Amino acid sequence: MDAELLPEAFVDLADTLVADFDIIDFLHVLTDRSVQLLSASAAGVLLVGPNGELQAVAASSEAAGLVELFQIRNDQGPCLDCVRTGLPVTTADLRGQDQRWPRFAAAAVSAGFRTVQALPMRLRDEVIGALNLFGAGTACFSSRDLRVGQAMADVATIGLLQARSVRRSEIAAEQLQGALNSRIIIEQAKGKLAERLSIDMDLAFGMLNDYARNSNQRLTDVARNFVDSATADFPPAARQSRG
């Protein structure tokens, strides 16, 4: 674990009171930092939507995002159990979970994951989602990883609930819906860039994300500008990466 990145991660996750706070950027920081700091191959976040439905809102890789969506669509998996119970769910080897989550286990293993650790995003009795860590091997996450991961999930939960309380419940619902719309825009931009450059979706997302950070823009704005562009030229992110 990188001792220098750890305090930076908590500073990033605690900074939710700024005027231009954006849920999507915030949750991508959470998943990115989880992979950087913990023994995870990928990470994802599920949130409870305005009507109580679960939504996959952020993931550190295309494979993790697809696995999260698979859980929701098939109504089974450790991350769903975590949200429903409010308790951590540990799966050391998905190949032994054919009875508990038959469809999910097969899909996750096929995607390259063997281990899943689901951590609740919970404050007292209110569960708003789960931070999910995926591992390619069968080694369990260490107790230190789990403590740090749960602490990050707790800080993120407090930040999201604080943002909701500041904007009132109606505005919070609109903001979450906006976040879901932003996710769609980002997925469209990833697909467009991946097709244009003949690259995979993870690399396309990384290029868009890097350009947003380097140019101090929101990821959603970069993605929307690219999707709406009618030109055949590459976006600055792609041009820089090609050079």
Would you summarize the structure shown here?
This protein has 243 residues and is of the alpha+beta class. The chain has helices at 5-14, 23-37, 62-74, 78-85, 102-110, 143-197, 201-214, 219-228, 236-242, and strands at residues 42-48, 54-59, 89-91, 115-123, 126-135.
Query: Could you spell the SSE succession in H and E letters?
Result: HHEEHHEHEEHHHH
Number of strands: 5
Q: Tell me the name of the CATH homologous superfamily of the largest domain.
A: GAF domain
How far do the termini sit from each other?
33 Å
What would you report as the Rg, rounded to the nearest angstrom? 18 Å
The number of helical segments is 9
Could you tell me the CATH topology label of the largest domain: Beta-Lactamase
Class based on secondary structure composition and strand pairing: alpha+beta
Second rung of CATH, namely the architecture of the largest domain: 2-Layer Sandwich
Instruction: Report the helical percentage.
Output: 55-70%
Number of domains: 2
- Strand percentage: 5-15%
Question: Based on CA inertia axes, which overall geometry fits?
Answer: globular
The top-level CATH class of the largest domain is Alpha Beta
Largest sheet: 5 strands, antiparallel
Walk across the major sheet and give the strand order: 2-1-5-4-3
For this entry, give a set of tags:
243 residues, Beta-Lactamase, five-stranded antiparallel beta sheet, 2 domains, alpha+beta, disordered C terminus
